[in-house]
Amino acid sequence: MNILHIHxxxxxxHLGLRIAKQHGLPFVFTNHTRHDLYALHYPPVVRxxxxxxxxxxxxxxxxxxxLTTVASRDAAHWLQALVPDATDKICVMHNGISINxxxxxxxxxxxxxxxxxxxxTLFIYVGRVTPEKNLEVLAKAMVRAVGLGxxxxxxxxxxxxxxxxxxxxxxxxxxxxxxxxxxxxxxxxHYLNMxxxxxxxxxxxxxxxxxxxxxxxQKPYVGLKAAWWDEFVNENGAQAGVLCDHDPDQLAAAIKxxxxxxAAQGRMGQQAKLLSRNFDIHNxxxxxxxxxQNIEAAAQRxxxxxxxx
Length: 309
Prior knowledge:
- This protein folds into two domains: about 5-95 and about 280-300, 3-Layer(aba) Sandwich (Rossmann fold), CATH 3.40.50.2000; about 100-280, Rossmann fold, CATH 3.40.50.
- About 40% of the residues lie in helices and about 15% in strands.
- The protein is built from eleven helices and ten strands.
- The strands form two sheets. A six-stranded parallel sheet has the order 7-6-5-8-9-10, with helices on both faces. A four-stranded parallel sheet has the order 1-2-3-4, covered by helices on one side.
């Protein structure tokens, strides 16, 4: 092989690092997660240890790599602060998808089969149902939005340890919430196309594929203000969704506002489709090929030694 591409630093990635060092292979390191934000959900007694290990591991990989990539500017700023002596080789490479996802819907249950009325605005969440996804805030907001008169239904695709808690929190509107659990990835476009709005309350994302796929399906979004959303801004300033402060009442108001305004849904949906072009897998792949070619050429100029110890 000519180049290694290592995608994580906390486990099996160390095997890749060892191989790169043993054979003098150049490698690219891609960090996909804001581990520092995830660590906040660990018990305080172990949090300091986890953060220390994360810092040590990521610094090791960044310094030894020929290039380190992250999928958002927010994540790049975090890594640059973590490894200030290696900022010159940290860059942003967005995630990519096949943006024809809107055309890949398969014949699965329709709204009627899921007891979702045609007149309801269907909000969809796709992702893990775990504490770091902040679904508690979303559950509170949905209950309050229904209390405000919002004619909505919430469809949740994903599994995880927080499901029972979320089910308990939405008990009073249980007829308005559908839990489908984990689905095969090929099935997800069907439900994205069925839905009207994509919604998430996560604060710890980088460049989530679930959001990109929703944009490609022409769905506006509703979420909480967070730095990772900076990747989803149209150059013309037009909005593809609504972001609000970290408050269930404000989120509930946003849910009702978007649900009530069908014209705004359509306008934001058009902007969402335009935004999805930034993540077209064909363009992203071409960028990666150029990166690999440049790294291989640089390694050859340096006598084939691509790893910095």
